[in-house]
Amino acid sequence: MPVIELSYSRLQKLIGKVSKKQISDSLPFLGLDIESEDKDLVRIEYSPNRPDYSTDIGIALGLQGLLGIKTGLLKLTIKKSKNYSISVKPTISKIRPFVTGIIAKNGKIDDKTIKQLMTMQEDLHFGIGRKRKKSSIGIHDLDKISFPLTYSTVDKNHKFIPLNSEKELSISEIISETETGKDYGHLLGQSSQVPIIVDSDKNTVSFPPIINAGITTVTTKTKNLFVEVTGINKADAEDMLSVVATILQSAGFKLENVHISGAKNSSPKLEEKKISVDSSLINQTLGLDLSTPKILSSLKKSRLNAISKGKKIVCTIPPYRFDIFGPMDLVEEVALGYGIQNFEPNVSPSQTIGQTNPVSLHLKSLNQTMIGLGFLEALNSSLSSKRVLYDMTNRDSKNILSVLDSKSQEHTILRDSILPGLIENLSRNIHESYPQKMFETGNIFNLDKPISEKINLAVISAHKDANFTEIKSVLQTLLKIGFGIQIETKTVSNSTFKDGHCAKILFDGNTIGIIGEINSTIIENYKIRVPVVGFEISLSDSVLKSL
Amino acid sequence: MSQVFHDIEKKIINSLKENSIQTPETLENSTHLSPDQIRRGIEWLKLKDLAIVDETKSSVISLGKNGLDSFEKGLPERRLLNLIKNGPKKLSEIQKELGFVFGPAIGLCRKNNWIETSSDQIILKTTPSELPGEKSLQLIGNNKLPKEQIDKTDLSELSKRPDFVIEDIIKNKKISLTTSAKSLDVSNISGAIDVEAEVPEVFVARTHPLKDTIDEIREIFVTLGFSEILGNMTQSSFWNFDALFTPQDHPARELQDTFFLDGISAKKIANSEQIRKVSDSHKKNWRYQWDINEAQKMVLRTHTTCVTIKHLAENKPDEARIFSLGRVFRNEKVSYKHLVEFNQIEGIVVGKDANLRNLMGIQREFYKRIGITKIKFWPTFFPYTEPSLQTMVYNEKLGKWIELFGMGIFRPEVTKPLGITKPVLAWGGGIERIAMLKYDLDDVREFYNNNLGWLRSNTKCQ
After folding, report:
1. pLDDT value of position B1
2. Where are the alpha helices (DSSP H) in B287-400?
3. Does the CA dihedral A474-A479-A484-A490 come out positive or negative?
4. pLDDT at A526 (0 to 100)
5. Which H/E stretch holds residue A211?
6. Which residues touch B273 (CB under 8 Å, ≥6 apart)?
7. In this structure, is the dihedral angle defined by the CA atoms of residues A137, A143, A149 and A155, taken in order, positive or negative?
8. Which of A142, B277, B351, B445 could form a disulfide with A224 if both were Cys (CB 3.0 to 4.6 A apart)?
9. Domain B63-168, CATH 1.20.1640 — does that match?
10. Residues B51 and B176: beta-carbon distance below 8 Å
């Protein structure tokens, strides 16, 4: 989850009359986790469904509501203007078809605000923008641009001075040489044409979704902003724009609209939406008995507007709250506005009788029997490695089941057997006293339209007198005393075991496992200095067969 | 009161009856007991007033490093005299031959006037037949001898030289029986054992500590009226993500968070109605082109919720309390606080009256049973529940609030397409976290290291 850094003193200025303690006490009840605090600075983690919390300005809006300082919906005031327009050319429709935008005027931007806007932009790109694939933002100094603008395509020889550069670069150079070009160039695909926004003086404004032009860079001297959002889906682009517009208006800017035309595009509406919810759904879901006025005030504390119409509560939802899909989301808004700390937990008596799964019960009995036989329970990961599962134990890796892109070398292959892991465990314990006797039960995996999962038991015994007879006695007693199962052993050859000291285990004529003395080269490879014997059986095909 | 004797005591008494005054060494030989057993036996008999121990001190002499060197090669002055026995030799030659004893040797020979030195030669004047100390050096040799057996002049001569002789003070014990013991007949008295002696360590066979915690949690759920369901660890993306309203381009569905099985897709993931309704919900709410190929990709389950949602979709209960417990997977870097594979518990309550306060109540009850009473709830976000909460529990040992289970009510976007009509409360979290608190571990990897040192020594009942 994304993390942002805030300053208490700045938050206090943004919220109004509030103490530092009130802020830190309230943050968790907005769903914001405090990661760490250092004097005036606090790092908080927010949920990706609330992109408005990617700036302190957005968090201040939320806290104002929760603390009752300012409640209700923050209405976007967008002045109708005919001065700003973007015309979209049809050539863009196959690459990044949509653009939207807004003008924000007469604001004051200090360093800290610029920093907040930058992190907001990055978080929006990463989260709802899906790493700029779905939508991306450009924030520009309005006074450096002459309208109207054109959103169209250019070939890769097109040149302009990009952000943070001294000299003119071609699109090809930007993609292959700049950092953002390397990170996001792949989003443009194989097309020879790329998206571009140019102004009426033929100056490049932006090369979405890669980089802005240097000329429009926002500084502390900037007063007026132009924001554009481009993307592959019109509604998503407008959602992202609504967050930026809300934050800029809250930061003191006056918004003006941008007219957009051409190739399926249209001017953004940034409209509020209305959703109604039954007060009975609210009270039933929360287990409360809230009066209508209390529900209305709770919703307002969550910065929504709400009125009652009969049994219905009609809510007005600002455009930046696109995380609200339906009535159930409003139930949560009531809960947050009411305050989670005000809920009294309540146990409803159980009408049902609990039951352990029969498989778990059988495994528990099996564990008890193994312990009675003097074996210690081990636990290994199901996700193991080729080295442990195949290489070290001379096993055939033909039907190997790998996962993609594991971050851990030791966890790349799903185990098809438990015994190799136990042998590896012995190698980590050569300094501990013998005898060492261990067992493990767990899932094993095999390719089978698509994958079969079975439960196996592996048992291992290592000490100077370990031999076949000992381990067969254990197997026989476990199955007979534990489960009334009779087995037979028939000689077989297996690369993990010593030739002539290995048998397959038969139950009802079917092979359910293998038993024997472990091949001495395996023991030597693991630097184990005592003989090792063991067996592995499928519990799914024996003990658990009838379940 | 009849006396009970240990076998050791009986053997010592019998031996002393035959041979009235003995040392520990002679007792060792006659009884075939170990020095330690003899020491303890004598101690016990002394405490019972059956044996008298006379302790005397004496000195023994043995040779030190330089003494042993001279025992083998001769005293330095003897070696010098031997070198020039057949005629004078050069100073440098002798120096080379004698090494570091050259200085003392030449000093002694000059002082006793056995040699004469010219500018660069040493010439023999007389050869003394026996040098002071020489005889005793041979007598001691590699042995330890009582001080009184060694010639006093020799000893003082050798003692002057550094690291030649070592004098040890030893305690001699003479053991004899007291009068009352002499008349004891121990042959018919039964044997006792040394109940205070150290014994060898034996190792207990036991269940794994993490399994104990898992069993404990399972037990709590069953007593709270929940029934256990099981499911596969390998799942189609459909049940792990799509059915839980996680859009196909969600970051959690990327390779870097989730383990995808290389090249493996499920042909049949669900019935056609389930697929149609789930995909419709995605298209309508998330506005994108839902792709069945994505839903068919097999993953290692990232939560046990895929098992519960599948169960609910198949059974559509109006009322139920179920739980699932098992391994889940995340593609993470393994560290002291992260594993790629860990256990998760998840509980579900279905019922027309199930509500958020009940959900909080069940949490409180569960935590109480694992010994946690200080809890609070904070709002949070999960893609498939609304409202969503997390529990914070206060840990006395760490002195801070830590995050445990997450919980919520399944979103209508999850339940409706699968035909589930009643509210579904769900909560769950990692079990290793709870077990770490219980066993005071600060490295979660210890649970899967199978380190016998830890498994054998960990307290079973906590």
Report:
1. 41
2. 292-296, 305-315, 356-369
3. negative
4. 95
5. strand A211-212
6. none
7. negative
8. A142
9. no
10. yes
Give the side-chain half-sphere CA count within 13 A for A391: 8
CATH of range B5-50+178-192; options 1.20.59, 1.10.10, 1.10.4030, 1.20.1260: 1.10.10
B window 175-214, beta carbon within 8 A of A: 201, 203, 205-208, 210-211
Chunked mean pLDDT (size 10), chain B, 462 residues = 76 89 90 90 89 88 87 86 83 82 83 81 82 84 85 84 86 87 76 73 90 95 95 97 94 90 94 96 93 97 96 95 96 92 96 94 94 94 94 88 94 96 95 91 94 86 64
Do residues A271 and A99 lie in contact, with contact meaning Cβ atoms separated by under 8 Å?
no
CATH architecture, domain A3-66: 2-Layer Sandwich (3.30)
Residue of B nearest to A334 (CA): B387
Place of tokens 């209700």: A72
Q: Give me the residues paired with residue B325 across strands.
A: B345
Distance of CA B107 to the CA centre of its chain: 60
Among candidates B211, B217, B259, B216, which has minimal Cα distance to B447?
A: B211
Residue A10: per-residue pLDDT: 93
Contact in structure between A414 and A382 (CB atoms under 8 Å): yes
DSSP state of A142: G
What residues in A contact B363, CB-CB < 8 Å?
Answer: 345
**The CA-based dihedral angle spanning residues B372, B373, B378, B384, taken in that order and rounded to the nearest 10 degrees:** 50
Q: ∠A435-A436-A439 over CA atoms, to 5°?
A: 140
Residues pairing with B375 in the sheet = B393
Strand partners, A138: A228
3-class SS shares of chain B: helix, strand, coil, % to 5: 40, 25, 35
Out of 3.10.20.70, 3.40.30.10, 3.40.50.2020, 3.30.930.10, select the CATH number for domain A358-538: 3.30.930.10
- Whether omega before A450 lies within 30 degrees of 0, making that bond cis, reads yes
Q: How far apart are CA A444 and CA A454, in angstroms?
A: 5
Q: How is residue A368 written in tokens? A: 């008890």
**Which two structure tokens, joined as six digits, stand for A102?**
């807004």
pLDDT score at B461: 66
Q: Which of A428, A28, A505, A365 is nearest to B449 (CA)?
A: A428
The answer to whether the peptide bond before residue A209 is cis (omega within 30 degrees of 0) is yes
- Does B264 contact A347 at a Cβ distance shorter than 8 Å? no
ipTM: 0.91
Q: Which residues of chain A have pLDDT under 50?
A: none
**Interface contact B381-A429, CB threshold 8 A:** no
- Residue numbers of B between 377 and 406 with CB closer than 8 Å to A: 377-381, 383, 386-389, 403
The CATH superfamily of A78-261 is Phenylalanyl-trna Synthetase, Chain B, domain 3 (3.50.40.10)
Q: Label the pairing between strands A497-507 and B341-350.
A: unpaired
